[in-house]
Amino acid sequence: MIDYQEELELYLExxxxxxxxxxxxxxxxxxxxxxxxxxxxxxxEAGEEAISLLYRLLPKELxxxxxxxxxxxxxxxxxxxxxxxxxxxxxxxLYLDDAAGIVEEMxxxxxxxxxxxxxxxxxxxxxxxxxYPEDSAGSIMNMEFLSLKKDMTVAxxxxxxxxxxxxxxxxNILYVTDPTRHLLGVLSVRDLLLADEExxxxxxxxxxxxxxxxxxxxxxxxxxxxxxxxLAMPIVDKEDRLVGIVTVDxxxxxIEEATTEDFEKMAAMLPSDKPYLxxxxxxxxxxRIPWLMILMLSATFTGMILSHYENAxxxxxxxxxxxPMLSGTGGNSGTQASVAVIRALSLDEVDFSDxxxxxxxxxxVGLLCGVCLAGANFLKMMLVDRMLLGNSEVTIPVxxxxxxxxxxxxxxxxxxxxxxPLLAEKIGLDPAVMASPFISTLVDATSxxxxxxxxxxxxxx
Amino acid sequence: MIDYQEELELYLExxxxxxxxxxxxxxxxxxxxxxxxxxxxxxxEAGEEAISLLYRLLPKELxxxxxxxxxxxxxxxxxxxxxxxxxxxxxxxLYLDDAAGIVEEMxxxxxxxxxxxxxxxxxxxxxxxxxYPEDSAGSIMNMEFLSLKKDMTVAxxxxxxxxxxxxxxxxNILYVTDPTRHLLGVLSVRDLLLADEExxxxxxxxxxxxxxxxxxxxxxxxxxxxxxxxLAMPIVDKEDRLVGIVTVDxxxxxIEEATTEDFEKMAAMLPSDKPYLxxxxxxxxxxRIPWLMILMLSATFTGMILSHYENAxxxxxxxxxxxPMLSGTGGNSGTQASVAVIRALSLDEVDFSDxxxxxxxxxxVGLLCGVCLAGANFLKMMLVDRMLLGNSEVTIPVxxxxxxxxxxxxxxxxxxxxxxPLLAEKIGLDPAVMASPFISTLVDATSxxxxxxxxxxxxxx
Lengths: 461, 461
Fold this sequence. Notes:
Strand order of the largest sheet of chain A: 1-2-3
Shape of chain A: elongated
Oligomer: homodimer
Radius of gyration of chain A: 30 Å
Largest interface: A-B, 123 and 124 residues
Largest sheet of chain A: 3 strands, mixed
Number of helices of chain A: 21
């Protein structure tokens, strides 16, 4: 494990020095014992000019593994510098799902060059994978997997593994199919090792099958793989034929990417596909400005409500001082509920059909929170604002207006916060977009209306 | 894959009916082909009374696998109903890391009973695991792994796998140790299968090793495992002896749990360890009220600033209508920056040493966003508020006050938002706690001060 900052700097220093002194043999020796992911990190950090030089020092197989781990802009730069035979060499070493992942990120000119250099089989498979929708299991599956026939013996299976297992991404899980490629069973290489040489595959395979379809959402497939503790999920096409597998390492990447997107959406940003520091300021701006603009303009309504009650406020200006607290408390209460529900949705713990259970829960939580917050606020207003700070405008009716508003706003915010994401899911929108900023804006406006309603009832303004 | 709501309801209906009619053989048949995770879900949903009846229908090995997947309160309930021999049966089937995970969640009385029934070796190992800090790799590792000696032949290794491989959680990755249990190399079962029977292990093992320590943070170990696409991470003790492995399925659970905690902390909630709908309203309240209370009381400062400028506001009440927009825009801008940095921190993409790069990036993004937002706001105020709505109080100086404040607040919010999480990480606090609600409160107060400063400068109030 390269401990991120400390060792990284040391290695980078070494690499810079060796590159300057043209100590290429030593550089190669330095990289050889490292993990591909770490080498990729170092290449990225070493800078644009060094990357293609350093990359060419790596032995062929390692080079391909490192290539997969690079960011797509570095991959593009490398490919543009490759001779045709270099490109072919890399492609030959890549697993199909990795190759497909790379091709998806490249501009058309590069894609054409890649398809041109790929073997006919790879080209055919790449074309197939590229036809699946971007978020589907088909788009991330690997079409190279090891399948067995049910009438093979264990010894036959071992022979098959020895013959073609070297080219597969994984042989830990083996799939048994019939002549029409329908999935019959699954077994692990351990099952094979613990069985007798003469045992038939059909006698030792597990026929309790779980699979996903090529068109299934890749995030759901990844979550299912995690839930079942699988090393790979078999993927079938529309005719239920086994066409590929999604392996656990790819599932982890899918989950990580989806989680990052959720975080971004919840914080009112458009999802980005590059690491934070590698995104240019301009791209970050593009991802952030749309929601900022929308939310700023929608805050106009809140402003209009305030303008509308300008005279009421002028008559009792003390009310104004509690508006930030009310809008903050409402926003935070709503955010808590919405984030809890959004997370539960993405972990498949709740569903729109649970909406009543969720609402009932949030109403009780909201009531508990509201009563506590209103109580604390009452004490604070009477003891601190009135007695300690001597603000004689803080009368008991004013206190009541503020505290009743707190109570009602908290309950309402919880109800809005928990139901909007469920509603969004139901109508096919992304629940994460319904998170805090959106709900805060909605709750802001609502809480002001409630506030002035109570004020006009209790203070007669 | 049980498609969450639709099939679940169907199965539950069937289970209820069969239970009522005492069709136990059919119930057993229903469960047998299912995945343990799905059976656990159905048992949980079937209700408190049914669970122990249904559980006892499962064959021994499947029962243990289902047991691991249950929520800890159901596990506790089942254990309390177990006879001593039933408890022993379950324990015998469990992998050590699962047993340790269960024991950690149980009250003392149950723990004593479990330790009492465990085999002496399991008791010893459980005691060892339980001594590791809760968040350490040691606390989630499995001490049962398959190790080989370097002078074994491939044939010897297969013999060893056939003899003891059945009891191991995984045999896909094998570790080569010296007599003092120091890690020498690693190989996959595929390497064994593709090698000759007479090859020596030391000739085919991979000596480029990556490992973690028992005291390392479990989340970091899980992230490393994901980064390197490993199926298991070897764990060494203080003396660098191999003592266990963390497998990919456990790493996925760790990441999922840590992500949920991050979401909760960012939304100002204390982390909970149960799924959303299974947490009682009272427990949810306990997790949410502390931050709501703190944030409500800290909004007092914002209120005090407003009170302080009460006279200035009374002189130019139109300013009041733009406060929600200012605080919202500031809060959202800060949240975007903080969430982006918090996520980058947890993916190990940035570090405190990057603080200047991060600040430089956010300042540029802030400036871009600020200029756009201020510009849009100027247009909106002049065209909508002044011309369309005919509010003659919206003069050009007022516009300038609002727009300059927007610009400055956005830049400041970005700077605060990105640096607070980095600072928190540096001084050993949790960066996720520095997220939106905290930053919004801080930005709220700051933006008001800036607003009134500009107002007094440009409007002379």
